[in-house]
Amino acid sequence: MEWAMMDEGLKMQMRNAAMVVWPSLLNGERANVTLVTATLHDIHWYDQFAAFSIVTGWQSAGWVMFSPDQSEFRLTPKGVEQFARWKEEDRLWESGGDDDPKMPKRLKAGEPANNLRRIAAVIGNRTIACIHDPYTDIRSLENLLKVMGLGVRISQTLMILGSPKPNINLRTVGQFLRNDLNVQNKSQWEMRTYNEGGHRRFVVCADGSVVTFGLSLNHLNKDEVLESIPANDPHAVHDRNFFEEKWKSSDALPT
After folding, report:
1. Which pTM does this prediction carry?
2. What digits encode the pLDDT tens for the residues 18-68?
3. CATH says 3-80 is which class?
4. Which of 76, 100, 228, 251 yields a CA-CA distance of 20 to 30 A from 194?
5. CA dihedral of 75, 79, 81, 86, whole degrees rounded to 10
6. How far apart are CA 253 and CA 175, in angstroms?
7. Could you tell me which residues are beta bridge partners of residue 193?
8. Coil, strand, or helix at residue 57?
């Protein structure tokens, strides 16, 4: 059963149980199903059926993956993202903040891994079609792979606009993009550059909406604002037109 269709009481049980069990699994560790259900019984007094329903509920929501013999499970990237969202909800409650925990708007210095999750949460179910980031390099492309691992969809024909920078070897970036990343993903991502790259960083989604962020994807350890702009907003229209104009006059990466 999908998360949206579940009983509210079961949802709360799944959340409370996850806050107890999942912290030890965030680094890729596995958990034994029998031991977890026994732990939930001891801590929350859930009977065996209720405890097992919680664990299978995590699986139905896509937060955990079971081993072939169903005896163990581990967190999926979607589960890691959900845990970070719940932790943010708890932090906001304790601090008295009024931010929307379902749509975090700030990236935070010292939390590069969580910043990836925040970017993924803001993008949500949309598909990234274009990226404008003057400082795109190999680390940027590797972080895109990490974002995909968190469940974000990226177009098979992704277009990336960067700029020539003294510390970025565009030939090496192009080789990594063509020979490694595109081969691995069976994709046709393309990157081009233009000289007046400025400093703006944004992504255009397939539905026409735009997500802006003040940092480059090659360095996520900063405090910056995330903003999601609807497709019909004049700012989103401007960014889409800007990207299309620059793409037409941009240069292919050196081979």
Report:
1. 0.59
2. 988 898 887 778 999 988 888 887 776 567 778 888 888 899 888 999 999
3. mainly alpha
4. 228
5. -120
6. 9
7. 162, 251
8. helix
